[in-house]
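Anyone up for a design puzzle?
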């Protein structure tokens, strides 16, 4: 090729042009805004570990200020104080609508000496006892057939029910036990009933505290909640009013014989106030 060649100034054609080299990274922005699309950080909320199925309990939180009393009911169901078992009433509502557990509680069993007491529903027991104990009882819950848990806000309200025995529910006496957490089931005997009894046939000269205590031993035991009041022995010329703790596992007596020196056997007739007797 010579300088006179007209194609001498035309560069040869390149069939394969190499790509442009990569651009160097831009220097970081001193204001921290060099990234056009900052990474998005996502968080996944982990759920709490569920309770085991056989110990499922609703734990109250700050959004649910009213705790549930199902633990108390379940612990009472485990007592098995009666032979007949029944499914707890469905009227025991969901935890969100359950009232706060009362701090003082009594167990109420329908006395059934001859085994003919019909099951009393929770709704009936709640209605009757709420009206009877108006303003004192907070809630009535069924534990099992004819066994109920009564809750009270104050100890005074609870004690007024204990001292006011006997109580009846649909013509059946109620046997009362104070509920104590962790008490063994055999400790709930439902064996005693505190009742008012009139003693007829006691001469005035024999109406002394010592003599009345002797007579009470033929019937039951002196009341745990009421002291003998000697001033009441002569209120009525015909009878002496006393409070006696009766053993319901023993037959009720309508009269007793009490030996008196220089007199012999004295017959004393008994009248039970507000005590219902079952009929076979």
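Challenge accepted. My sequence:
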């Amino acid at each position: 090729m010579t300088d006179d060649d007209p194609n001498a100034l035309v560069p040869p054609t390149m069939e394969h042009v190499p790509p442009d080299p990569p651009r160097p990274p831009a220097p970081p922005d001193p204001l921290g805004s060099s990234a056009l699309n900052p990474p998005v950080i996502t968080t996944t909320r982990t759920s709490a570990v569920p309770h085991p199925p056989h110990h499922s309990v609703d734990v109250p939180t700050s959004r649910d200020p009213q705790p549930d009393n199902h633990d108390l009911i379940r612990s009472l169901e485990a007592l098995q104080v009666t032979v007949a078992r029944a499914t707890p009433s469905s009227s025991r509502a969901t935890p969100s609508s359950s009232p706060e557990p009362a701090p003082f509680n009594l167990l109420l069993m329908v006395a059934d000496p001859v085994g003919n007491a019909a099951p009393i529903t929770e709704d009936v027991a709640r209605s009757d006892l709420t009206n009877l104990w108006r303003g004192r009882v907070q809630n009535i819950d069924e534990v099992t057939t004819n066994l109920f848990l009564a809750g009270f806000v104050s100890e005074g309200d609870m004690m007024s029910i204990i001292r006011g025995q006997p109580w009846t529910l649909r013509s059946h006496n109620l046997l009362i036990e104070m509920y104590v957490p962790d008490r063994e089931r055999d400790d709930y005997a439902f064996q005693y009933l505190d009742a008012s009894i009139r003693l007829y046939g006691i001469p005035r000269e024999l109406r002394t505290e010592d003599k009345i205590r002797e007579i009470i031993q033929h019937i039951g035991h002196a009341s745990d909640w009421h002291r003998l009041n000697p001033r009441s022995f002569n209120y009525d010329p015909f009878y002496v009013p006393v409070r006696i703790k009766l053993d319901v596992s023993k037959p009720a007596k309508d009269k007793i014989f009490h030996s008196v020196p220089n007199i012999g056997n004295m017959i004393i007739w008994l009248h039970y106030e507000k005590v219902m007797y079952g009929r076979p």
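A detail worth pointing out: The first helix runs from residue 70 to 77.
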